[in-house]
Amino acid sequence: MANGSSQSRSLPVALVLYLGNFTRETLAHMGSMWYLLIKATMWFFRGFVSRRARVGRVAIVSQIVRIGVKSVFIVSLVSGAIGLILAFQMAPPLDQLGQVELVPNIIAVAVLRELGPLIAAIVMVGFAGAAIAAEIGTMVVNEEIEALEAGALNPVRFLVVPRVVATIFSLICLAVIANYVAIFCAALISKVALGISWVQYYNNTVAQVDPRDFLTGIVKAAIFGLLIGLIACGNGLKVTGGAAGVGRATTNTVVQSVVAVVMADLIFTVIFFALKLF
Question: What is the dihedral of CA 132, 256, 267, 163, to 10 degrees?
């Protein structure tokens, strides 16, 4: 009886300790990301006023090619499939109501506001976020970061800023591509399987959406890119423990980035709804 009562008392204590440690680690991680954001922003704007602090264009362009250009095919494939799925899934219930011609209206709103930026962000997390964390983490393990600091070269300026700028710019472009591909694929299957003509699909889409729908999605894409770049770079810079540490940083980057993107999407959706931006 004594052992049973002591175990029953230890379970709540263990739960409280676990939640306390989890909260402490989460707040510490968020603080480190915020500090990294401040330093990266400082170096970015310092490059406009000081020639010695400029971030190389070659570094940014190379990261855009590696992160953004090479993701175009995957983003197009996934967003096109999502467009087809949406058209097929929404047609039966709308047909029961005699409103199958409203498929373009719903798809346009869903893609421009939510799915386009979200699809591009999720693909970039797996395609580029993990790669950035592994790359920087390997540099930490090989003591290349210490070599940069020994040469009076700031790692944030040379490693973090180009990658964060590249993720933001690339994700904005990828979100636009995802929007057009998803809507085009939905229009194609609507023409073939649902009997909705190209002209009717175009007219319904234009009548339903306005520039605010497109701009809110672009704002989300920019924030998603910022979060992915910061989380990937931050986890890479904090690698310890050799190759195993690189693996942990890669896994943490994927998990944290997905959670951060979804939570940011929720927050911005609530804000845009409260401001009546859609």
Answer: -10
